[in-house]
């Protein structure tokens, strides 16, 4: 079996979308039934780090949206729909 390269750290990836794609890849990797336990654990650990970093990014984006929505430049009485950004609760 060929040796796999070390997973990239979340800080080494450029964009949110790339890191999200990596997280999805890790999820698929962990679900495989033929993956050795140590590889699954490493993938899980990297996934947790990525998920936490992505969550922080989303919080920053949410805060920026709040600031923009409450700025003086926003049209008075106009309330945009932000369903995409709701957390579903």
Which terms summarize this structure?
2 helices; mainly alpha; elongated; 0% strand; 89 residues; disordered N terminus
Description:
- The structure is a single chain.
- This protein has a domain at 14-70.
- It has 2 helices and no strands.
- The protein has helices at residues 16-31, 37-69.
- Helix 1 runs antiparallel to helix 2.
- It is elongated, with a radius of gyration of 18 Å.
- It starts with 15 loop residues before the first helix and ends in a 20-residue tail after the last helix.
Quick gist of this model?
The protein has 89 residues and is mainly alpha-helical. It contains two helices and no strands. Helix 1 (16-31) packs antiparallel against helix 2.
Give the helix/strand class: mainly alpha
Strand proportion: under 5%
Percent helix: 55-70%
The number of helical runs is 2
Write the layout of secondary structure elements.
Elements: H1 16-31, H2 37-69
Helix pairs in contact: 1-2
